[in-house]
Write a structure and sequence with these properties.
Rossmann fold; alpha+beta; 216 residues; 6 helices; seven-stranded mixed beta sheet
């Protein structure tokens, strides 16, 4: 991982005791992209637009989000990950942006439709004086977009710090947490050629290392 981190994949199927033991051993967490979150977790019926639901993964990742927030452990969430974080903390999602969000732009620039993963689909505006704008060093970014769902009701513990042109929340920070950031785009697909995107991963590793060193 950029910044010198050593990744460890947490498998499904762990009991709570084992999962907690693994959580205690890692210094930070990254939640990656994937299928849609089961709407049952935010009290909604399942739309026929939902795809790739995995309730076991949903439950595991929501548990890790809550534990990370409680423990102050560094956390970076990407695409599906920002949606999991929002739902884990009490928020809700648009199940399909073009169908459900008034005025929504297209956000589903999938590789199956012929788009490269690093296709910069739209601009993004960051909130001034947010932690993310200080980390990345720019108020406006051009980002890729490989999702069809997004944040609808924002969890009360989250602060919106980045928006797409249609107003969709695409970056959040956890209030009062030393390092807990969610982004709706895929910085890992842009990081090879973009130092700004690499800084997200370098910052996660630094926060994890700093947290580990404080507890030695």
């Amino acid at each position: 991982m950029a910044g010198g981190g050593a990744p460890l994949q947490i498998p499904l199927g762990l009991d709570q005791t084992t999962l907690r033991a693994v959580f205690e051993r890692v210094d930070g967490l990254l939640l990656a992209g994937g299928g849609d979150v089961d709407p049952a977790f935010y009290g909604g019926p399942t739309s026929d637009k939902c795809r790739g639901i995995d309730r076991e993964r949903d439950a595991l990742e929501m548990t890790l989000v809550r534990w990370s927030i409680e423990a102050g452990k560094p956390l970076l969430t990407i695409c599906r990950g920002i949606q999991v974080m929002n739902v884990a903390l009490g928020g809700s999602l648009y199940q399909d942006l073009l169908s459900d969000m008034p005025g929504a732009l297209r956000h589903d620039y999938f590789t199956s439709d012929g788009f490269a993963r690093d296709h910069r689909a739209h601009p993004l505006t960051l909130v001034r004086d947010s932690g993310l704008i200080h980390l990345l060093g720019a108020e406006r970014l051009a980002v890729n977009s490989l999702h069809h769902q997004g944040i609808k009701g924002l969890a009360s513990d989250l602060t919106p710090v980045g928006h797409a042109p249609d107003g969709l929340v695409e970056a959040v920070e956890v209030k009062g947490h030393p390092f807990a950031i969610g982004v709706q785009w895929h910085p890992e697909a842009l990081a090879a050629d973009d130092p700004m995107m690499r800084r997200l991963f370098e910052a996660l590793v630094k926060a994890a290392r700093d947290g580990r060193d404080r507890h030695l």
